[in-house]
Amino acid sequence: MTEEQKPIGSRERTREILAAYGLTFKKSLGQNFLTEPTILRQIASAAELTTADDVLEIGPGIGSLTEQLAQNAHQVLALEIDQRLLPILADTLAPYDNVTVLNQDVLKSDLATLIRDHFDGQHKVKVVANLPYYITTPILLRLLESGVTFDQIVVMMQKEVAERLAADPGSKAYGSLSVAVQYQMTVKLAFIVPKTVFVPQPNVDSAIVSLTRHVTPPAVATDEKVFARLVRGSFAQRRKSLWNNLTALYGKDSATKAALTEVLAAEKIDPGIRGERLSVTDFVRLANAISAHAKL
Predict the structure, then answer these.
(1) Alpha carbon distance 21, 35 (integer Å)
(2) What is the pLDDT at residue 5?
(3) pLDDT of amino acid 25
(4) Which label site among 1, 12, 128, 146 has the fewest CB atoms less than 10 Å from its CB?
């Protein structure tokens, strides 16, 4: 195999591309390029991609993962915020006519419109990406709140954040992010990616997480905004009881306290426990009871 035929994500070709374009890494964008083709293929495999799938990629970098996605999926739409990478991507991805690269910030993009404009609506829509550590949580929440029904989200992130997504109630890692994600998706930690396979090398290991939409949701909130606000508020001060967090969120006047007491008693939830002890279903039950109460 010649140098030119090696995968974009090989260490040799990555170095060649970086040298050819004189590219320096932007720490402000959390740029760490994965240089192990085997792992890149495993990421695509974790998404179970076929020509029945359209893929949204966030932060394609120099196209290492994009190449694997293009080889397996129907269409790939990649959003890249760094303008310097556009000519590189045009070069490295030139062999693939099923890839579209847009110079856009995912946090400012109308994802529903992008998906509608660039995909034909006849294929499943999945997200596969290596997320920047510093904005992993905002991107995940953006995806979940976008109004797009993603069939699967397979993303690489800091191992610690991955553990938070998959955490069980009562564990130290369990928090508002765990609840927000698990409400919509089944979370599976696919595998760990060592920090040594990145250029430049980050300080921590990464993990590949697969999020698959529930076929039948365990519970459904009658008001998604009330549910989201309740979850965030219940973890506002982790060391405090659920009661203290709820009164801080809804108010400490006697009428509000009486209403909260009534709701918690009806749902058989101990006001003295901490929010981390509640399951996703518990939060949904509580949110629905709050939504239905005239004084809350």
Answers:
(1) 17
(2) 67
(3) 73
(4) 1
Contact 35, 14 (CB under 8 A): yes
105 is in an annotated binding site: yes
- My answer on whether omega of the bond before 200 falls inside 30° of 0, hence cis, is yes
Decide if 62 contacts 19 (C-beta within 8 A). no
CA distance 54 to 203: 33
Which residue has tokens 């964008």?
Answer: 29
205: annotated binding-site residue? no
CATH number for the domain whose boundaries are 3-213:
3.40.50.150
Domain 224-292 class in CATH: mainly alpha
Is 245 known to sit in a ligand binding site? no
275 labeled part of a ligand binding site? no
In angstroms, the CA 159 to CA 191 distance is 10
d(CA 83, CA 103): 6
**Spans of the chain, pLDDT less than 50:** 1-3
> Where exactly are the structural domains of the chain?
3-213, 224-292
Selection from 233, 242, 279, 241 nearest residue 263 by Cα: 242
140 marked as binding residue: no
**In this predicted structure, what is the pLDDT of residue 27?**
63
Residue whose token pair is 């809350």: 296
Q: Annotated binding residue at 203? A: no
For 175-192, give one letter per residue: b (16+ CB within 10 A) or e.
Answer: bbbbbbbbbbbebeebee
Q: What is the pTM of this model?
A: 0.91
